[in-house]
Amino acid sequence: MVWKFELYPEEIILSERTIRQASDVIEEWLDHFPWEDTWVENNYGVPSIIIRLDCTVDEKGGLHVYEVEDRPSGIGATSRFNISFKEKLDDLRSVWPRFESIVSPHRDYCDDCEWLPPYNGNGSLVLIRSEPYEKDFHSFQRRSVSTVLTKGNKSYGVPMGLWRKIYPNELEDLENRIWEKCFALKPLQGSKCNNVMIWHPEHRKYRKMFKDGSGTTTRQRIIQTLHELKEMYIQDYIPPMLIHYQGEKRMIYRIFFGYDPRINKYQYIGGFSNVRPSLKIHGATNTLFGSIN
Fold first, then answer.
1. Using an 8 Å Cβ cutoff, are 123 and 2 in contact?
2. Tens digits of residue pLDDT in 191-246
3. Model confidence over 71-87: pLDDT tens digits?
4. What is the 3-state secondary structure (H, E, C) of the chain?
5. 253 has which bridge partners?
6. Do 164 and 158 form a contact (C-beta atoms < 8 A)?
7. For 70, which of 30, 78, 89, 222 is 20 to 30 Å away at the CA?
8. What's the distance, CA 233 to chain centroid?
9. What letters, b where the CB count within 10 A reaches 16 and e where it falls short, cover 29-49?
């Protein structure tokens, strides 16, 4: 599958304040993300050789965090259109050990081919693109430069104050006023926006406003999913940034940090913006991508 995408023409330069705030979030994340018996944990003491922060920045320069992606996608695609990002990534790769990409046959698309060689069975270190339940890949754990079993684990967000657990009875309590404000629900573990749902009290209004879909979810669907999963995390809704480009759009930032063994910390290397005509921002076919440095 070849993934074609359109570029948003505006390059965004993050302020030193924003980068500092993001670095502080990552330092706290490191204290709470679960340990896993991987090569990168045993040799560098971090969950992943490269991570991504999904966030927005408000008009006063305040950072608002959706989550920290422990094994992010989009690295290869970003290298194609963001020259500064590619240069900084190449600098880190010069001090990283060589590793190869293993991609599950169940994955629809992967852009690792843009920046990593495919695994050839020679016992090298690997970046694994599979889901935790795919047991065929568990044997690579001790050679992995990122997460395998803990991929997409969101437990770190509770002690960080990003979200809390919620159970079905809370949403069904008639005395509870939770439905009066916006919120997002996400699974305890997962990625790629799977089972991530946004509630907005004006759901019907937004469905009419966005012809391609508002990104919001009905109350019935939210309750049904929570019953199926038994427990989820609830996060205060963080509105995407409003922009005007070919009509009204919403934007979020996705910024990468690579582990630098020379200084024993994560370094900011740039990233990309996502722009969509929806309140739910992810890599869909109508998403615009822009450079962030």
1. no
2. 766 788 999 887 666 665 555 556 788 889 999 999 999 999 999 999 999 999 88
3. 999 999 999 999 999 99
4. CCCCCEECCCCECCCHHHHHHHHHHHHHHHHHCCCCCCHHHHHHCCCCCEEEEEEEECCCCCEEEEEEECCCCCHHHHHHHCHHHHHHHHHHHCCCCCEEEEECCCCCCCCHHHCCCECCCCCCEEEEECCCCCHHHHHHHHHECCCCCCCCECHHHCCCCCCEEECHHHHHCCCCCHHHCCEEEECCECCCCCCCEEECCCHHHHHHHCCCCCCECCHHHHHHHHHHHCCEEEEECCCCEEEECCCEEEEEEEEEEEEECCCCEEEEEEEEEEEECCCCCCCCCCCEEEEEC
5. 55, 273
6. yes
7. 222
8. 15
9. bbeebeebebbbbeebebbbb
φ/ψ (deg, to 5) at 135 = -65, -20
Lowest mean pLDDT among 22-36, 140-154, 211-225, 250-264: 211-225
Cα–Cα distances (Å) from 285 to 7, 89, 114, 275, 281, in that order, read 12, 26, 19, 11, 11
| Residue 159 · residue 237 · CB < 8 Å | no
pLDDT value of residue 3: 59
Decide: 158 and 165 in contact? Cβ < 8 Å.
yes
